[in-house]
From TrEMBL:
Residues 52-270 form the MIF4G domain. It is found in: Cytoplasm. It comes from the Eukaryota. One of its GO terms (cellular component) is cytoplasm. One of its GO terms (biological process) is regulation of translational initiation. InterPro entries: ARM-type_fold, MIF4G-like_typ-3, mRNA_TranslReg/HistoneTransl. Keywords: Cytoplasm, Translation regulation. GO terms for molecular function: RNA binding; translation activator activity. This is Polyadenylate-binding protein-interacting protein 1.
Length: 361
């Protein structure tokens, strides 16, 4: 009788070593982190020749490691308070932060947060304006050049578009104190964003319209009730001027406005466009227990939809506010992300435009 064969476990070999040198991605600045970790405040301060070198090094560090903002911003402000003691130094600081926020991709949000923190924690009292005032003056200079910038060459428009998106983030992040001490936003920035949107639509080349769509996506700044009707009118006029952009503009606006705006948005098809095609913002149709259809545009949608969920018991382990009653570890809901990555969004928009062009050919 043959003896049973014993399965041999293959030997796994690896070239990995616990003594391997530490890996750093390309462009990573080791010197800055070494200064932060191994030097005292005075030593780190003395390692830099001038203010511009120190500030630029810190800005690059934030660009590479944005998660360090909360841990290191207080120390950064402390260094600046010991260094920025004259109007010229404060002006230089404002310019450095502005240039980083408008020239480095994806730094506009971090730049706006940094501006808000410095506007509240810099102790210098200059004659020509504090940090926030000088920053707004710098933005005002770009704002006044908006008509020329939207008509300029590709490089000029690209710089202007970066300014527009930074100003939108600045509006959302810059906090000021009201007359009674309450924290509020700088509403004048929202008026400025409104005029910038007008300027972009007034010169409807593709790059300007792409910037306009991105502006409309920045935290929904423009979709307050006071601007809803104005925004619909503006988009309606733009669709008539550039019909090939109707897909993205109509897709962006109605999905983020309330129910009345959705109803009004169905009227913004320009003449010559295929208005019989189903609009991209059409809502799915649901049915009550009596068989009556309803959509998200109906005023009593929430009540009817909740009744539908209770009747069908579609989400037995979740409360109305989304609280998970079954505990952590759900392999599906743990990975839901409501927002797409900016690069994916841009690629999706380009795909939509190309598809629209092909459909019209």
């Amino acid at each position: 009788m043959a003896e049973p064969q014993v399965a041999m476990t293959p030997v796994v070999t690896s070239k990995l070593s616990v003594k391997a040198p530490e890996f750093y991605p390309s462009g990573y600045n080791q010197n800055f982190n070494q200064n932060i970790a191994d030097s005292s405040f005075e030593e780190r301060y003395d390692n830099y020749v001038n203010l511009a070198e120190y500030v630029q090094d810190f800005l690059n560090h934030l660009t590479e490691q944005p998660a360090c903002f909360e841990m290191e911003i207080e120390q950064f402000a402390e260094v600046l308070n010991g260094w920025v003691t004259a109007d010229e130094a404060l002006q230089e600081l404002v310019e450095l932060v502005y240039q980083q926020a408008t020239s480095v991709p994806n730094f506009s949000y971090m730049g706006a947060r940094l501006c808000n923190y410095l506007s509240h924690h810099l102790t210098i009292n200059p004659l020509n304006g504090n940090f926030r005032q000088l920053l707004l003056q710098r933005c005002q200079a770009e704002y006044e050049n908006r008509d020329e910038a939207t008509k300029g060459d590709e490089t000029t428009r690209k710089q202007f578009h970066a300014f527009v998106l930074f100003l939108a983030e600045l509006y959302l992040n810059l906090e000021i104190k009201g007359t009674k001490g309450q924290v509020m936003r700088a509403e004048i920035l929202q008026e400025g964003l409104r005029e910038l949107l007008n300027a972009l639509f007034a010169n409807p080349v593709d790059s300007n319209l792409i910037c306009a769509v991105k502006l409309l996506k920045v935290r929904e700044w423009g979709f307050q009730s006071v601007f809803s009707q104005w925004l619909l009118s503006l988009v309606s006029a733009q669709v008539r001027r550039a019909p090939h952009w109707s897909f993205l503009l109509q897709h962006r606006v109605p999905h983020r406005l309330g129910s009345p705006a959705r109803a009004a948005a169905t009227c913004i098809h320009p003449e010559g466009c295929n208005s019989s095609a189903p609009p991209v913002w059409n809502e799915p149709t649901f049915y009550t227990s009596d068989g009556v259809p309803f959509t998200a545009a109906d005023p009593d949608y929430q009540e009817k939809y909740q009744e539908l969920l209770e009747r069908e018991d579609l989400f037995p382990d979740y409360e109305e506010n989304g609280t998970d009653l079954s505990g952590p570890g759900d392999p599906y809901f743990d990975y839901i992300d409501e927002e797409m990555d900016p690069e994916i969004e841009e690629a999706y928009e380009k795909f939509c435009l190309e598809s629209e062009h092909k459909r019209k050919q």
